[in-house]
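Hi support team,

I've been running sequence recovery on a batch of backbones for a student project. Most finish fine, but this one hangs at about 90% for roughly twenty minutes before it completes. I'm not sure whether the input is malformed or the queue is just slow. I've pasted the structure tokens below so you can try to reproduce it. Let me know if you need the job ID as well.

Thanks,
M.K.
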């Protein structure tokens, strides 16, 4: 087991959601902390507010890409390929996981089943793979995932 896998196991053990874990992995790669951002990611838990919709590992990875490519201040512009990167992420996730929603991935019956515990094997693997894919997509576009927008 490598350091990244151990980090994600520890985060899961501390009760972070999939989306929060992906973002925490990205922040740690940059050597940063941002509790407000991490807290905000809890809204994506278990398919956005426990709805069973879009998987938090996927939405967290999209947010991680957005952290590096999106507009965050008046003077900034989004990276010209921001949405292409997210589209590539979604297509990869669909192929990798076979579905986009927590409900489909966990075999639930809709919102009433969405707020159950994560499946450590399935969800943990998707968190690690989604984080890795987001990091690799950024690197493929010449964006250093260990840096923030200051690189512009």
């Amino acid at each position: 087991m490598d350091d990244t896998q151990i980090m994600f196991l520890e985060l899961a053990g501390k009760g972070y959601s999939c989306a929060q874990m992906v973002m925490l992995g990205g922040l740690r790669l940059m050597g940063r902390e941002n509790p407000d951002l991490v807290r905000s990611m809890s809204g994506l838990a278990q398919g956005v507010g426990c709805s069973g919709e879009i998987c938090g590992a996927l939405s967290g990875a999209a947010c991680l890409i957005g952290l590096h490519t999106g507009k965050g201040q008046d003077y900034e512009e989004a990276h010209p390929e921001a949405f292409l990167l997210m589209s590539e992420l979604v297509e990869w996730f669909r192929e990798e996981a076979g579905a986009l929603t927590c409900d489909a991935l966990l075999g639930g019956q809709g919102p009433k089943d969405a707020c159950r515990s994560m499946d450590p094997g399935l969800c943990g693997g998707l968190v690690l793979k989604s984080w890795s894919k987001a990091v690799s997509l950024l690197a493929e576009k010449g964006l250093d995932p260990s840096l923030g927008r200051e690189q512009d």
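--
Follow-up from support: It reproduced on our side and the slowdown came from queue contention, not your input. The CA atoms of residues 61 and 99 lie 15 Å apart. No action needed from you.
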